[in-house]
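User: I'm preparing a small set of examples for a lab meeting where we compare how different chains pack in three dimensions. I only have the primary sequence for this one, and I'd like the structure in token form so I can line it up with the others. Please keep the answer compact; I'll paste it straight into my notes.
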Amino acid sequence: MNKAVSKVILKEGREKSLLRGHPWIFSGALANMPDCKPGQLLPIYDAEGGFLAQGYFHPGHSLIGRVLSRKRGPIAPILKERLQSALELRKILFDPEITSAYRVVNGEGDGIPGLIVDQYDGHFVIQVHTQGIERLKPLLLDLIKEVFQPKTIYEKSSSSFRSEEGLSPFEGNQFGKTPEFLEVRENGHPFWVSIPNGQKTGFFLDQRNMRALVASLAKGRRVLNCFSYTGGFSLYAAAGGAESVVSIDRCKRACMLAEKNLALYANHKIVCADAFETPFSDSDFIILDPPAFAKKRKHLDSALRAYQTLNERALRAIRPKGLLLTSSCSYFVDEQTFQHTLFLAAQKAGRNVQILSKHLQAADHPISLFHPEGGYLKSLLLFVD
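Assistant: Understood. Below is the structure token output for the 385-residue chain.
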């Protein structure tokens, strides 16, 4: 280690991924790593001394650096510009009178690795995943207030990413006091969400497109929504004219909010139980949107077994000419592996299955073309004969 060096220098030829736009730097690409605090912002140079970017670094990690800017100069105006660009994109995507809950910053997809920001009718939720963003948090909070003019800001930084970064979980108000319950709109449908007590940031915003798809296909069908949380898919199915809708979730708090969200629909029933231990009803439209089974790479094998078991059960239970919408939000399960797991499940269940469509996360969760790793959600709509 050269303590006098205050910049990161890459090995010869290892700047190619950065020049192609990728925001990650792995330890093997470094010719040197100066002594620095975890998350410290440093300039990055190629082997010839040419400036490449600015990024924050975490010594000792394999994924050692993340790029924040390809420009020299203070980081504050650069981050402000990124937040403004993210806001302009969401103005294109949403009419707030129709949809008032959506993601406004999606990490690398919006050029700020390690930061997630969701908003619920003007109440903002941030998730800080890395040491670099933790160090920049005071600045980012000021910029979020300036750019977005939020009613409140609540931090919900409790993911497994933080422990890998050496950070403790943190939840609490950062600006104002966020109400326990909020009513928001999605595609004109009202939903009650709980930011402090809900899963993720309060709602599964990334499945918005899939919920709309369910509404378009549910008419006259008997729908079973497993891992239903607060009833997102269930409400869309009921509103789309389903003959009946059954929701299964083991979280009592989520089931209570689902009851509230679907209070207007008499054709809806909630079963507060574990979907793995509950017999699947006689349905012709099953929705499987489980939590991430593989939060770490070492969990991949057990996750694939769980996905196969779950989908095999659904395929055995579903009526002929039924529909199965099945998803995986596990980052370490790629699309090809997930599809192969469904093939094994269909083979064991002895059912003829056709893929009708494939889907990724909603548009407010953009994926940088230069960072394909940002695509974590996989959904397939299947026709089961």
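A couple of notes for your slides: The first strand starts at residue 8 and ends at 9. The chain has nine helices and 19 strands.

User: Perfect, thanks.
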